[in-house]
Amino acid sequence: MMPRAWCAALASVVLGLCAVPAQAIQQAFLVQNSGWMEPFYADPQSQFKPLIAAVANAAARPGDKVMVLAFSQSSGSNVSPQLLGQGDGAAQVAGWLAPLAPARKSASALADTDFREAVTKTIGETFKSRPGIIWIFTNNKNSPGNDPATAARNLEFYRLLHLEPSITRTVVFPLRMPVQGKFFAAKGLMVYGLAYGKEAGDELGRMVAEGRLASILTKPPARLKPVDQDGVRIVPQAVLNTPNMTASMGTDKRTVVLDVDADKLVPQVRLKASLQNLFYPYLIAQATVDGQLRTRAGTTPLTVTPTAVSNLAPGASQSIEVSFKLPLEEVPSAWSRQAIAAMGKQVIMPMSVSLGLSNQRLALPASFKTEMQELFPGDPLSDMFVPPDSVKSSTAQVPLIVRVQYPLTPVLVIVGGVLALLLALAALAFLAMKTTRYPIMVNGVRRNVLLKPFKSLAIKADDGAAVGEIRRGLGRPSVVQVEPGQTLTIAS
Predict the structure, then answer these.
(1) Residue 165 phi/psi, 5° resolution?
(2) How far apart are CA 258 and CA 256, in angstroms?
(3) Which of 31, 90, 339, 439 is the most exposed place for a label (fewest CB within 10 A)?
(4) pLDDT tens for residues 48-63?
């Protein structure tokens, strides 16, 4: 369990979490300057301060509030942490660091180190209990009150990083930095990134994913929290033995794009890919692999070969083959509104392939343990990197886009039909407007009349008496009514 002092110190600030603008985040760079850090300041070849300035410039975006603080342990006139400078952006970090030297707790003794004090004061006083990212640059010597049991003190700190819920994300960069001072020597430096609050956790995650620190901190960060997110990645490589279908990668280098003609669409797809372990520094000792195809209509299982992963080292990849059937019922017909609206172009069907690892067991490689013991002798770093038992599964997704090329034939047929209909309507309209002369016989006397299509005409005798009525359709007129005692016929 976490010591009560840690819990009490952070509990008072957890309730103060509140949102800050998504485009800006406050970042505090805590630089250890206790006596144990003497060689990092005394060695003329030390790259300690340039490294901090470089990390700050890479981590901070324009508009971020940046604070640089030196920390050791408050004792007598020595105050920890001590603000060296603050401002928007990290342009002045190198200048703030330039005069920094090891702190003293008395005229004859260098200051001790208290990680707990540095973290809790930064959150409560410097951050005002608002979300932010804390960077810690340390040789991992945690010795409040000159306590020689630095390993036990560090273990308390490691438990804080794992168990305190307000610290939402933690990454660690173990660095090799051999330095020699007048009193001490060191081989390694530890850079911690702690996110306090959800907004800060999201920003720290984006920072690592975008590789903003990769040119300075060249090794991937060792993940402490959360371990169960983004642990594996699928890297598509090719579509196997699938006729009439071509595959390519999207501009994001993750999305698989399948192009196929509508009249040659085949249901079966075999995708070659590699499964990469991103659980640095953990290896995937064992896991069972399965998968699903996700479409707008739901999910269907897919086949993965092989079905198991074992001893997959961090950063390493294992080749896999994924086989699945395209849901042809979701492919629009060539005569559908969607296909016709495409005007002979492509209809896009978004999907995704999801792979899952179950019965997963992580382990810390012996090589990593050896490296950490070399850099930080006697430190219980293995306890800090114990994989949580709760991380039993993980998932990875590959966005999939099926682009179906539709022929122009349905469009041409429909356009031709529409044109034919329009021509017919135009012909009818023309005929409806045309007046034609027809001969008729009225009481034995021949007479000519003019008549338009679909019109009728009342026929009268010379004395004005009604004779009858004729009507015309598209062709010749016909007699529809004759008055008694009268004769009316259509002449030939």
Answers:
(1) -65, -25
(2) 7
(3) 439
(4) 999 999 999 999 998 8
Q: In whole angstroms, what is the distance from residue 444 CA to residue 460 CA?
A: 13
Whether 407 shows a pLDDT value over 70: the answer reads no
Residue partners of 364: CB distance under 8 A and separation at least 6: 281, 282, 283, 382, 385, 386, 387
Euclidean distance between CA atoms 438 and 449, whole angstroms: 5
> What amino acid occupies position 447?
R
Query: How far apart, in whole angstroms, are the C-alpha atoms of residue 283 and residue 294?
Result: 28
**Residues 46, 40 contacting (CB under 8 angstroms):** yes
pLDDT tens string 227-236:
766 778 887 7
Instruction: Name residue 33's beta-bridge partners.
Output: none
Closest Cα partner for 114 from 72, 152, 154?
72
Q: How far apart are CA 489 and CA 469, in angstroms?
A: 10
- Whether 460 shows a pLDDT value over 80: the answer reads yes
- The one-letter amino acid code at 140 reads N
Query: What is the C-alpha to C-alpha distance for residues 112 and 316, in angstroms, rounded to an integer?
Result: 41
The amino acid at residue 393 is S
Closest CA to 255 of 403, 132, 128, 388: 403
Query: Does the model's pTM come out above 0.90?
Result: no
Per-residue model confidence (pLDDT) at position 6: 44
Q: How far is residue 308's CA from residue 359's CA, in Å, rounded to a whole number?
A: 10
**pLDDT tens digits for range 387-401:** 666 677 777 788 888
User: Would you report the helix, strand and coil content of the chain in percent, each value rounded to 5?
Assistant: 25, 40, 35
**CA gap 62, 96 in Å, rounded:** 18
Cα–Cα separations (whole angstroms), residue 208 to 74, 199, 204, 230, 492: 33, 15, 6, 12, 97
